[in-house]
Amino acid sequence: MAMMRLRREDPRVVGSFRLHRRLGAGGMGVVYLGSDRRGQRVALKVIRPDLAEDQEFRSRFAREVSAARRIRGGCTARLVAADLEADRPWFATQYVPGPSLHDKVAEEGPLIAAEVASIGAALSEGLVAVHEAGVVHRDVKPSNILLSPKGPRIIDFGIAWATGASTLTHVGTAVGSPGFLAPEQVRGAAVTPATDVFALGATLAYAATADSPFGHGSSEVMLYRVVHEEPQLYGVPDALAPLVRACLAKDPEERPSTLQLSMRLKEIAAREAQGIGDARPPAPRVDHDRPTGRLSERYADQDTERGRTAGTPAPRAHAPRASTPRTGSRPSTGRGTTRSGGRTNGRPGTRPGTRTTSAGRRPANPRLLRQRLVVFVVVTLLVALGIAAAQGCQGPARSLGLTLEGQRPGARELPGVPLMPRGTGAGALTP
């Protein structure tokens, strides 16, 4: 909410509150940011001098403030203090930080269905508390809804019947903002909680489309459309359109209650929030990106079930072979092949009875490859150790250049020359 410096004519202290900034001005008076001695911040509204002199307004103001004191709801700005006997009556409500719904939509555009439903559910729940206190807001509109970090809050409830620059401010006439007024308010009939339901429906339509359901124009044109024309709900999400249209019914008896509206909007918000998660597009994937391990086993199981339903015996799953099959090797019966007369379990588009290429096969299971690699390494080490042990036993004999039989390795018997017997020759030891 935009803040402005205090002007020269603005008071500095009202009641027990010190004023710091201007928050805005409307047809009813000026709103200030103030604080009490404990530092609690409030939004304090001082009534215009001309309205302060109207006794009818003072009586009506006193009744509304008395009813507002009884409101106990988390979705409303709590009334903190008021002085009905001051020269210029004033009241202070809890200060709610955050932009108005009007400003948020104007700056960021229409809200998604889940956000609209969530905000509407909270506002409906707040209106339940307002109506139970015997108060009808009469001026529910986007600028009277603040989006605080703790959720939406309704401000100026019950006593905002003459606020807003575009508001009809004459006492005794229709009170509210054109485009958000209910038909019974325009006709001057009695207002009921259904009046706030109509205004809330128009507010939700604005949040979903960034426009009033009755368009734009002068106050007279807008009021005529509210009474005689149907609302334009183009752009309202399908999940919300029927409920918003029911809220904007001309007959108050045909509108849902605030409790029904709150429950219905909570259901829509939950469903739409779930739909947002489901609607996220998956990451693009090609054949060689398919997952392996347990997920690939699920794919294999799914393909097996599809093969059974098609009348084809379920093929046994094998690890894929090399990309180029060896001559005479047994053809693989995994995912990349199909049997004659059956349905292919490889890539879509392969004809029965033909083999798919290596590009159509899924990658090998890394767990199986790791197991084979470990077995290969262990076997290799065992063989190497065995060879080393055997060489160690033959080492002494080889160091003398003789075999166990006393012969040089590779010696042959030449014709007429016998091999030297054991223990003889230049290398023999004498006793």
TrEMBL record:
Transmembrane ranges, per UniProt, are: 373-390
Q: Which GO terms describe its molecular function?
A: ATP binding; protein serine/threonine kinase activity
Family annotation (SMART domains): S_TKc
Which domain of life, per UniProt? Bacteria
Keywords of this protein's UniProt record, alphabetized?
ATP-binding, Kinase, Membrane, Nucleotide-binding, Transferase, Transmembrane, Transmembrane helix
* Record carries keyword Kinase: yes
Xref: InterPro entries? Kinase-like_dom_sf, Prot_kinase_dom, Protein_kinase_ATP_BS, Ser/Thr_kinase_AS
What protein am I looking at?
A: Protein kinase
Organism expressing this protein natively: Streptomyces agglomeratus
